[in-house]
Amino acid sequence: MNLSASTTTPPDDAKLLDYNAWLFRSEATPEQRERQIARQAEILQRAEGAIGDQCFLSDLAMVQPTRLVLGDGSYVGAHAYLTGTIETGPDCTINVFTVVRGTVRLGEGVRIGAHTSILGFNHSMAPDRPVYKQAGTEVGITVGDDVWIGSNVTIVDGITIGSHAVIGAGAVVTKDVPEWGIVAGNPARFVRDRRHAKTRRKTAHAELASRLAEFSARAKRQREQLIDAC
To answer: Repeat among the record's keywords (predicted)?
Structure first.
């Protein structure tokens, strides 16, 4: 037995692109590209729309829209779930386990982290009958250009997110987000303008250290006076 031989399990190349879809442009084999052409054609037989050049839709994603428009270079990762009317500009990413449903329009260069839910539909909840029997509503969600939506974010129906905004991981977005805005939390709140430098806050430890240093310097300056006074 050769003890120096590697016992590492080789990567599952068959699923590499499903979970790392950004590699499609550079590493897809001719067979994988042919598979994508067939998959996209099959989707467009069931849904209106168009899919641009260099797009990738994982075989492990559930893609069942009524209308689908993907801009050039966009991708849909494994286990994503797409239904409704979905339109994206070029270079948009719908990462693994992301849910995009209802009416959702994304601008150019939108990045969506894993496990995010973008829900462009809703239903009423009047008290006179069970929720599941009530009519649905659909206002839609609009996202501008160059927007980064972190992982585990939830965006509810009727929201508009301005261009260049950043949505912090885990945020629940229930109000419109302005252009260049950074928001975070549940419910999401405005943190700062992305164009402005982040202001560092002193921690309690740093604040105490700073005050002790100031006290030490003052004591050194005043020690002669203190000695004379005593």
So the answer is: yes
